[in-house]
Amino acid sequence: MRAKTSSNYGPEAEPGSAIRTFSIGGHVLTAPKPVPGLYLVATPIGHLGDITLRALETLAGVDIIACEDTRITRRLTERYVISAQLKQYHEHNAALARPKILEKLAQGASIALVSDAGTPLISDPGFKLVREVCAAGHAVIAIPGASSVLTALSVAALPTDRFFFEGFLPAKQQARRTRLAELSRIDATLVMFESGNRIADTLGDLAGIMAERDAAICRELTKLHEEISRAPVAELAKLADTLETRGEFVLIVGPPRADALVMTEADLDDLLRSSLGRDSVKDAVAHAVELSGRPRREVYARALELAKDIKTGEDDGED
To answer: What is the average per-residue pLDDT within 219-227?
Structure first.
């Protein structure tokens, strides 16, 4: 049985009351329609077996499954013989799709929102939909399950009592280095997503800012070719060129040592140069004092020197 797919939220998605089914290991189970509302359903991050019974029952019972990519979600629905309609909801069509979803909810529909993998709203476009659904007075129900953030944290062998989720870092190097300098001031384990084509560059930038911290690279979590590498950042950076770049990456970086909370002079200079390129001296200093842990007088004096150098360089370059 193939899951039905449509590119819109048209009349064929009218809510129904029929009892639907799903299948596990050849056993057919019933899935009554859930009460009207938006269901945030966590799906597997890799291994299709990592889904809860409640999630399957919900996906089979709803009127519509709103998903990022119908081709990816169809693998899941076909595995468990789920026939709910699949509708696209992603960053490129969200503005058009949201009003149609809200209209269906107002008519009494039950709708599931899923991401391509893991828990919805974590680095995907669901936030605005959930906000508008709540504002309209409809129910929002979470169906918890797999999360690459928590999965990576659990196997990284790094402190988990406090962590900061950054998501994807900036693609451009200067912006990425600036952001990493900011993150280095956070007294917590850091969790970052990265793509295979940028993993080596990101590790190099990390090594320039947090070289001595313990870290873990988690690739293809829960999948057949899962790989987890644990070592100080500097060592991982040296191995970057040998990494298999296919797949999804989660980077975990341990918290700073208690004696490493003051930014080095070199990192302070990098931060100031970046800030002075777009902000006033006053704003650049305020930002640097907050992040560096260094006295304001010291930061201000250094900012004046760098600003003078930047100005001199610009003057020398004039015709």
So the answer is: 94
Count of structural domains, the chain: 3
**pLDDT digit string, tens, across residues 188-211:** 999 999 999 999 999 999 998 898
Residue 12 has pLDDT above 50, yes or no: no
Backbone conformation region of residue 74, classed left if phi is above 0, alpha if psi is from -120 to 50, else beta? alpha
What is the per-residue pLDDT across 288-303, written as a single tens digit (0 to 9) for each?
A: 887 777 888 999 999 9
Same domain, 174 and 41: no
Residue 176 sits in which domain range?
A: 149-260
Please check whether residues 111 and 230 belong to one and the same domain. Answer: no
Count CB atoms within 10 A of the CB of residue 305. 11
Q: Tell me which residue of 273, 265, 254, 274 sits closest to 293, measured CA to CA.
A: 265
In 31-172, alpha helices (H): 53-61, 70-79, 94-106, 127-135, 148-155
Beta-bridge partner residues of 286: none
CA–CA separation, 316 and 319 (whole Å): 8
**Residue 117 vs residues 41, 124, 198: alpha-carbon distances, Å:** 10, 10, 20
CA angle 262/268/274 to nearest 5° reads 145
Instruction: Tell me phi and psi for residue 270, to 5 degrees.
Output: -60, -45
Same domain, 155 and 247: yes
At residue 107 the predicted structure's pLDDT band, cuts being 50, 70 and 90, is very high
With a CB cutoff of 8 Å and minimum separation 6, the contacts of 2 are 74, 78, 83
| Segment 124-177, tens digit of pLDDT | 779 999 999 999 999 999 999 999 999 999 999 999 999 999 999 999 998 999
Amino acid 5: pLDDT: 38
CATH number at residue 238: 3.30.950.10
Nearest Cα neighbor of 250 from 176, 119, 148, 118 is: 148
Question: Cβ(165)–Cβ(191) under 8 Å?
Answer: yes
Q: pLDDT band for position 2 (50/70/90)? A: very low
3-state secondary structure of 292: helix
**Shared domain check, 131 and 60:** yes
